[in-house]
Protein: 3-hydroxyacyl-CoA dehydrogenase
Amino acid sequence: MMGTTRIRVIGAGAMGRGIAQIAVLAGFSVELTDVSDDAVAAGLDFVGAMVRRSVEKGQRTVEEAERALALLHRGASPTAPAADVDLAIEAVVENLAVKQALFTELETALPNAVLASNTSSLPITTIASALHDPSRLLGLHFFNPVPLMKLVEVIPGLRTDPDAVATALRFVEAVGHRPVVATDTPGFLVNHIGRALPTEALALLSEGIASEADIDRIVRDTVGLKMGPFELMDLTGLDVSHAVMEIVSAGFYGEPRLRPSALAAVRVTAGLLGRKTGAGFYRSSDGQQQAPP
Ligand code: NAI
Structure:
């Protein structure tokens, strides 16, 4: 891609590792970083395994896989100074204070980079308000699992420079995904529209009208989605999806249509976050969903 060659990914969890994977496969050099060394190691292992599996599936040659993996590096640290990073993509915990503190350091450490947040729901303009120069920051919202979900929301904040938006759009197209420019409103486009189904499903469950499994089956069989709302919440992680519900609800001043659910909140308190902890609405093992608990 013209101009952008070196990417730093900050946060090597579910989203960061997926972003690193598609970026190296598209020929970008990627530094994967995290506050946790173990998370970086697990992320590097994961990308290696996924790329090698794609060779077994006949999707690319051994040479192509090796070329891509040679572009993947462990970064020195999330905020190590570097003048040659063109684009930094942040995929850390969904928490405004954490993201603002990180970007405040990144704007000095990476003087030539466009700064992108993979936030699901935090307003880009608010994250950017902590920066000396808010024009370099925008939202670059990938969906889970990153290699399969081709849609990416590109979200300019109110003070984002159009050149930064152009860089982000070129990057998304270069990795073979499909960008949509979304307005910086709570939940942007997809997580605002996408609240409807899980919110209603949680209301049906809490009112005892139907079980998780029945609601998921009906949505799969009749609406035709690949996953029902409870399956999707378990995949996303309830810590993420419930936080998004709270942020979108607050952003629209408590609009009743968008009310978060106590059923989800109590699971977050209990550590029943979904596949990442072995149980959420369903039990799971090796990342696969099984029977309801
Ligand atoms: P995750 O919990 O899998 O990974 C987050 C990683 O960030 C962890 O490895 C953690 O050690 C690291 N981290 C935390 N604070 C850090 C800091 N200050 N500096 C560097 N690393 C730090 O989270 P996940 O699911 O990958 O989500 C990341 C972001 O992507 C969140 O903003 C989330 O809202 C957003 N997102 C998540 C989606 C999902 O389905 N899980 C979908 C789309 C966006």
